[in-house]
Specification:
Layout lengths: L6 E2 L34 H11 L9 H8 L2 E8 L2 E10 L5 E12 L2 H4 L3 E5 L2 E7 L3 E7 L4 E9 L11 H17 L9 E2 L9 H6 L8 E7 L2 E6 L16 E9 L13 E6 L2 E8 L2 E14 L10 E9 L5 H12 L3
Antiparallel strand pairs: 1-9, 2-3, 3-4, 4-8, 5-6, 6-7, 7-8, 10-11, 11-12, 12-16, 13-14, 14-15, 15-16
Length: 341
């Protein structure tokens, strides 16, 4: 099986490749807790995000099942640059001939009002909801009353072409095969995927909390299982910001991305590289403020099979701030709070 990144371990299947029910749970967990700085209106969401952050997004995929559903070859399975609660499984029919992408996200907001727009179905014994479009199909499996795991099948075809199989036909078959795994969702640290990612074991709100002393009446707002923002609760009239200055807040995201050193170019002062607490950090000016890319662990890497530059992915902490003027100081605060890898 050609998997260009996180490879499912052999222990997850028998010799015939059929998925077997098993205990994917993580080791015994202590009581779930949320950061004290989380504002009261966001505490329930923060608790749900803490639970959902433990679920191994790439571990919810099964390349063998996807191959059977599509008739194509599995190409790569990669954690997302949008957050480690997302994972893409891509399929192809050969080099430079992509066919399908299965995009999976854990912890999607999905309450009763959103479910009304989708069709309830039962796949593999699971109660799910299906949303069908011409070239894509989305299946949502509720985790609780407000959140779900979603997987979306997208066909890689030209605008005037139709997929070889209807997307929902493909996705229904795929999700049906995934049912034994989804009934007992694998957790990070369970061995379902390799290499093991360590960032999801940490709370991004713990990192953001390190910057609360920068804000008057500061509070934390969780933005999903892998994201958290620190900002001021003090209401102030809108102020005109200088060009390139972002919102007066700090947003932290756990992500997977390529080497940020590529952003640093000779003769260009928009990005610079520093070392903080032993971590490579690239501070990059962007149109809406400053983005700091912190390489969390350069020893745990994931190959991108379909990339020609051979660049590997690493776990990174992405920090968004209003400007780069104090970004290095903020990075120091964050790394001091979340500790060593």
């Amino acid at each position: 099986m050609l998997i260009g990144a996180v490879a499912l371990t052999a222990a997850c299947t028998d010799s015939g490749g059929e998925q077997q029910p098993q205990d994917h749970g993580a080791p015994q967990q202590t009581e779930l807790r949320i950061e004290p700085g989380v504002s009261e209106p966001y505490k329930a969401k923060a608790l749900a995000d803490t639970k959902n952050r433990a679920i191994d997004a790439c571990g919810l995929h099964d390349p063998d099942a996807a191959q059977k559903a599509t008739g194509d070859q599995a190409d790569e399975i990669l954690p997302s640059s949008s957050g480690l609660n997302e994972c893409d499984l891509r399929l192809h029919q050969g080099e430079f001939k992509a066919t399908w992408t299965m995009h999976l996200e854990v912890g999607v907001s999905y309450d009763a009002s959103r479910r009304r727009d989708d069709a309830p179905e039962k796949l593999g014994g699971m109660d799910v909801f299906v949303s069908e479009q011409e070239r894509t199909c989305t299946v949502s499996k509720p985790i609780d009353d407000n959140y779900a795991v979603q997987v979306r099948a997208s066909a890689s075809v030209l605008s005037n072409e139709k997929p070889a199989k209807p997307p929902c036909e493909v996705l229904r078959e795929y999700v049906t095969a995934l049912a034994p795994t989804w009934q007992d969702m694998p957790k990070y640290g369970s061995g379902r995927t390799q290499p093991e990612l360590t960032l999801p074991k940490l709370d991004p709100c713990a990192a953001a909390a390190a910057t609360l002393d920068m804000f008057e009446d500061g509070y934390l707002e969780t933005g999903g299982p892998m994201s958290c923002t620190a900002r001021s609760a003090k209401l102030t009239p809108p102020q005109k910001r200088d060009k390139g200055v972002g919102r007066p807040e700090v947003t932290v995201l756990w992500t997977m991305n390529t080497n940020p050193s590529k952003l640093v170019k000779a003769g260009d002062d928009t990005a610079r590289e520093v070392t903080v607490e032993g971590h490579k950090v690239v501070l990059s000016k962007v149109s809406f403020g400053c983005t700091s890319h912190i390489v969390w662990d350069d020893q745990v890497t994931i190959d991108q099979d379909n990339r020609t530059d051979g660049d590997e992915l690493t776990q990174q902490i992405r920090v968004q701030t209003a400007t780069c003027d104090n970004a290095e100081e903020i990075v120091k605060k964050i790394l001091a709070k979340v500790g060593q890898r």
